[in-house]
Sequence to fold (70 residues):
Amino acid sequence: MGTEEAVRSRERLFMWLAALIWLMVTVPAPFLNGLPVFVAGMPILWFWMLLWVVLAAVLLTVAYFVVERG
Fold:
């Protein structure tokens, strides 16, 4: 039973991480849309989306290996 619980806990981590990534992309978008701020030569909204595309790939890869390793 302990092993099954550990697997479920890791799977929950993966799901929570995916939900967090989705929230961090969608919730701030309307607030960042009208700002006249540029980061690395891009409007802040473009930079925010690109940042989370890269972070999502890294975080979900790490979460995948954590789930599969267990």
Remarks:
- DSSP finds three helices and two strands in the chain.
- The two ends are 14 Å apart (CA to CA).
- The longest strand covers residues 38-39.
- The mean pLDDT is 86.
